[in-house]
């Protein structure tokens, strides 16, 4: 069963507008972490934002914020004031298990969303 | 933030040869590193977990004799694609948790290696 689902293969947004990239997840663990990464055409994975399952506040990092709805098991990424340089593939990922476990750092990735920012 | 260095960034080789990819944590010790594989326009799939001083743990369906992993020091893990074939052509990328596995710290990725087997 798909653990991380990104239902938007591609998204378009006008420069300076905000955009939301969807991510839903499935886990039976109480403790988990949710990540968003940006992958430009160069291939590198750029960390954007992290939300822990026990964090009560939505995570924010500059223009990035994570809309965490635990009951709905969704962790949407909101990018405010889009810039041309935001055009890239975006991945949502989940880390399961408790800190200290041997596989704690393993990430399960969604299918990705290609974001295109128009001038 | 922490830096993970991966080399080479791109390699082209003939079918049947072996290719070694290095993943190095530059300013922190990484007792564990993770190797992922990514086909064009697709998601990252975990191949194996590299453990310093012990054998790697491979995901189901990944041939351990084909993809040799060595984690000889606290800052270096290598992935060797043995007897490479065109179907092994892919983007390989490593990651390491900065604070080890006992924290919620960020996971940092190398810049990836594009392998093309002719």
Describe the overall structure.
The complex is a heterodimer of chains A (119) and B (118). Helices cover 0% and strands 49% of the residues of chain A. Chain A is an all-beta fold and 119 residues long. In chain A, strand 5 (32-39) and strand 6 (46-52) form a beta hairpin. Chain A is globular. The termini of chain A are far apart. Chain B is built from no helices and 11 strands. In chain B, strands 2, 4, 5, 6, 9, 10 and 11 form a 7-stranded mixed sheet that branches. The A-B interface holds A 33, 35, 37, 42-45, 47, 50, 52, 89, 91, 95, 99-112, 114 and B 1, 32, 34, 41-46, 49, 51, 57, 91, 93, 95-97, 101-104, 106-112, 114.
Observed structural traits:
heterodimer, A: 119 residues, mainly beta, six-stranded mixed sheet, B: 118 residues, seven-stranded mixed sheet, four-stranded antiparallel sheet, 0% helix
Task: Please summarize what this structure is.
Chain A is mainly β and 119 residues long.
Topology, element by element:
The complex is a heterodimer of chains A (119) and B (118).
Chain A lengths: L3 E2 L4 E5 L4 E3 L2 E2 L6 E8 L6 E7 L7 E2 L2 E6 L4 E6 L8 E9 L11 E2 L3 E6 L1
Parallel strand pairs in A: 2-12
Antiparallel strand pairs in A: 1-4, 3-9, 5-6, 5-10, 7-8, 8-9, 10-11, 10-12
Chain B lengths: L3 E4 L2 E4 L5 E7 L6 E7 L5 E8 L5 E2 L8 E7 L2 E6 L8 E8 L9 E3 L3 E5 L1
Parallel strand pairs in B: 2-11
Antiparallel strand pairs in B: 1-3, 3-8, 4-5, 4-9, 5-6, 7-8, 9-10, 9-11
Taking pLDDT < 50 over at least 5 consecutive residues as the criterion, the unreliable ranges of chain A are none
**Mean pLDDT score of chain A, rounded?**
91
Topology order of chain B in helix (H) and strand (E) letters: EEEEEEEEEEE
Describe the main β-sheet of chain B briefly.
7 strands, mixed
Q: What is the SS-derived class of chain B?
A: mainly beta
């Amino acid at each position: 069963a798909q653990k991380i689902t990104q239902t938007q293969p591609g998204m378009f947004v006008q420069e300076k507008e905000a955009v939301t990239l969807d991510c839903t997840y499935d886990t039976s663990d109480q403790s988990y972490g949710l990540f968003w990464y940006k992958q430009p055409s160069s291939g590198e994975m750029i960390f954007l934002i992290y939300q822990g399952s026990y964090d009560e506040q939505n995570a924010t990092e500059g223009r990035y914020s994570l809309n965490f709805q635990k009951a709905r098991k969704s962790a949407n990424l909101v990018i405010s004031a889009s810039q041309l340089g935001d055009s890239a593939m975006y991945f949502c990922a989940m880390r399961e298990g408790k800190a200290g476990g041997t596989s704690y750092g393993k990430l399960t990735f969604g299918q990705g969303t290609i974001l295109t920012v128009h001038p | 933030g922490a830096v993970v260095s991966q080399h080479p960034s791109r390699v082209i080789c003939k079918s049947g040869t072996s290719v070694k990819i290095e993943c190095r944590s530059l300013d922190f010790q990484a007792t564990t590193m993770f190797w992922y594989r990514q086909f064009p326009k697709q998601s990252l799939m975990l191949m194996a977990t590299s453990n310093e001083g012990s054998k790697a743990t491979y995901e189901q369906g990944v041939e351990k004799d084909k993809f040799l992993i060595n984690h000889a020091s606290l800052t270096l893990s290598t992935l060797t694609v043995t007897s490479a074939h065109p179907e092994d052509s892919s983007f390989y990328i490593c990651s390491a948790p900065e604070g080890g596995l006992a924290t919620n710290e960020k996971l940092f990725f190398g810049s990836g290696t594009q392998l093309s087997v002719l």
